[in-house]
Structures are given as structure tokens and as C-alpha cells.
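=== RUN LOG ===
request id: a7f3
mode: sequence -> structure
chains: 1
length: 250
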Amino acid sequence: MSNSNLFLSIGKPIKNEYGRIIGKVASFALNPNGKFEAVYIEFGDGEFSKQSMDSLRFDGDEIIFISKIKSQANVLCDQIPLIWRKDEALKDLLDKKKIAPEIYQELHSSFENVLTQLKKEAQVIVDEAAIEIERCQEESTSLSYAIANLEIEHEIGKVDDESYEAAFTLLQDTLRRATSERKDYELIKSKISSVLLGDQSQTQLQTQSQTQTKTNKIYAEQVDAKTKLPEPPAEPPVVVYVKEVGKASI
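=== RESULT ===
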């Protein structure tokens, strides 16, 4: 949908990525140049929220709300390894004496600060994903009980076939969406956790490498040092004692 037609979406429902209606478009925020910067959404509970335009995807007549957790996770999974690679390249340049130590230290500190901030954001995503996984699991359990109760009532004849089919289809569709959503959040949590674990492994490898280098240097210095070994003591002279045997009497 072109920018000129975005106002036509005001009042239209907004669905999440799993087809569930979560609210509707209330209005848009524009800058002085007329560029759309944000969208105001009225959620199902009546709450209004200002969201970035990047959080919406227009698919024909449908308006899809992109999960903030999912979009942030994708960005972090790209940024964190990228900063690692830059820091590793910086270390290689220092080893090859292509940059001065003070330049290395300044840039290395900058990369470390960025990584620290990104890892904090990643941990927040992991925690939020865990909450969503629990919510989806509780919803799936509740829906499973609802289906079981529906089956019982239909079996004893309290629910007619037509009502049963309609309710069963609704519950099954909702259960499939909840299951799909839970799997997506589990994947997000797994990916972010792997990225953070990779950072820990990288840090351990760097520490081990630095320790080994220091140990090798100390050993080399010890080997190179000219240490005079003590000379063995001179052997004492051998003294031979000759016993004089007297002449035997005849």
C-alpha cells in the first residue's frame, strides 16, 4: 500500500502473524515532510499504543502486526556476531602490527561496550520469549481441556452435530495458532541463547589463548637465559696403601 493510501487503513483490523485480530488502526503520525513515522493502534482491550511503522506489514487488504520480540531477535542475531568478527579482525591487525596498540585498545573498548549493551538486550528478549512460551503453553492446555469437554458433551448428546463441528473447528484452529506461536518463541529463545553461548565460548577461547601466549613467553625467557651449571667436584686422588710384610723367622 502506498503512503498516499495509508489513511484508507484507518479503522481496519490488525492481525498478528498467526491470523488473530489484535486491534485496529486508529491513526498515523507524520513528520513535517509528510513521511509516516508511526502508527497508533487501538488494541482489543481498548488501550492505545504508538508503534513504529516497521511493526506493520501490509499484505494486500490485510494489515499484519510484526512481533517486536521477533524483529529485535533477528537484528541481535545479526549484530552480535558481526561485532565479534570486527573485534577479531581488529586483534589480527594488531598481531600483524598494522595498527598501533593505542588505536587497538580504543576500538576494542568501543566494541566491548557495544557487545555488552547488545547482550543485555538479548537477555531481555530471552526472558520475554520465555514468558510468551509459558503463555502459549497455558493457552494450549486450556484449549485441550475445552476440546475434551466438548467431546464429552457431544458424546452424551448435549451438543448437536452442527454446534459441535463449528466449536471443534474453532478450537482446533486456535490450538494450531497457539502451538505455532509457541514454537516460534522457542526458536527465538534458542537462537538468542546460542548467540550468547557463542559469545561466552569466544571469550573463553580468547582468555585461554592469552594465557597460553603468556606461558610460552615465560618459558622461552627461561630457556634463553644463560645459566651456568655448577661444575662437578674434582675427583679426590686415589691413595694406595702398601702393607710391608716382615721377613719370616727360619
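=== NOTES ===
The first strand starts at residue 13 and ends at 15.
The chain has two domains: 7-66, 69-188.
=== END ===
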